[in-house]
Amino acid sequence: MLFNSYSFLFLFLPICLIGYWGLRHQGWARPAIAWLVICSLAFYAWWNPSYLALLMGSVSFNYVCSVGLARFSSAKARKATLLTAIVANLSMLTYFKYAVFSIESLNAIIGTSYSIGSILLPIGISFFTFQQIAFLVDSYRDRSGTPNFLDFCLFVAFFPQLIAGPIVHHKQMMPQFSQIGSGRLRTSHLAVGMTIFAIGLFKKVMIADEMAMHATPIFDAAYAGNTPTFLESWIGALSYTMQLYFDFSGYSDMAIGLARMFGIKLPVNFDSPYKATSIVEFWRRWHITLSQFLRDYLYIPLGGNKGGNLMRYRNLMITMLLGGLWHGAGWTFLAWGGLHGAYLMINHAVRNSPIPATATRLLGAHAFKAVCWATTFLAVVFAWVLFRAPTWEAATNIVSSMIGLNGLSMTSSVSRLHAITWIPLLFAFVLLLPNTQQLMSRYRPAFGFSKLDDKHPAVIAWHWRPSLGNAILIGSLFVLSIMHLNRVSEFVYYQF
């Protein structure tokens, strides 16, 4: 079931909200949580009922392991439990996500023809697996105890974040579940949640899906062996750059908005990453919860920045290579992660050199910042080609045209030229306007939102507050989005 579908918007969500707030109104807090768990499991089963057993098996197994970590007094027994749980979780993830890729790669290397058939990837498996691994590691480290099974089920399966994140932390979520009590519906939760959701839906339906129609034909043509012109390659790359931005930004808004309708806050997962002036800053703004997971549970355990620059660079590269594979089982994803690992290494090396101070002195602070932004953005755009292209050949085909190796032709079809009118507008949108969390920051809609400078006149002007004008505006965005749901498409991150 998709957030941007009629069945979700006009059947599932109303039933879920009415049942939840109805139970709370009657003073039945625990049944309200149970209702959310039931709705979340139904939401997951909508995709493929057979994989509901996989989800519940994973939840039950990890819950039992967490009980063991809380109760075992022997350090050896606790360590063995943690290692067993991690191996089991990663084995499940590896089988479903990487088995076919591994066999195909082996066949290509040694010239064999082994086959295990096709394996349908359970949706959301990367997210709920990583989330539970983080929970177990934290339980092992701080002996924080084990929640009751119902709360743990909701922690893992809560439908706004089950399929594509954000990856939530138990210290953020469990206290909220324990504080769910009785009481009437708080209209502020609905107003804030529906506003954020409507903004996210508009981003997805009216912008991301529009840009997909410009990017997809160019990438498909490159995959088929056709060479795009210089102009077409840039239209394809920039269209996908904007498609992915508004697709993931829209999903993140919708997830936060949905949770807030139930009076629950999720962490911020997206913070205007195209405003970043370095790759380090980009990864602090893009897929924030995954970046934090990779930092806390991979980069730091590997040694982080201890041991000098060579060790830091090694750990950065390992982390980003595995981060690339997390996004997809393919060589292009691995190359995308490796490219970002190289970017980060260069970024840290430049930061530790005299270059920033010298450039600032020669160019001025503002000009140097503009150069840093342009360099960062172009680096991200080239990397997105690897992320999007279905094969290495398609990626090199487009990149070669982007850098002029296939000529500098500016010809293109009229339909593709239409994207040129969109791209500058979207640039202005992402660079000049506050993001959704900043717009709603007065109501603290999520954990970890960027605090605004309230003295800035643009910020004051864009702060959302309940009013007839805002209600008409948000309602119009929602209606316009609903009118275009005939071209329903999955979110890009649903495939991970």
From TrEMBL:
The chain crosses the membrane at residues 6-23, 28-46, 52-70, 82-101, 113-137, 149-168, 188-206, 316-346, 366-387, 417-434, 468-486. GO terms for molecular function: acyltransferase activity. It is an enzyme of class 2 (transferase). One of its GO terms (cellular component) is plasma membrane. Keywords: Acyltransferase, Cell membrane, Membrane, Transferase, Transmembrane, Transmembrane helix. It comes from the Bacteria. It is a multi-pass membrane protein. It is found in: Cell membrane. Its main location: membrane. Belongs to the membrane-bound acyltransferase family. This is Peptidoglycan O-acetyltransferase.
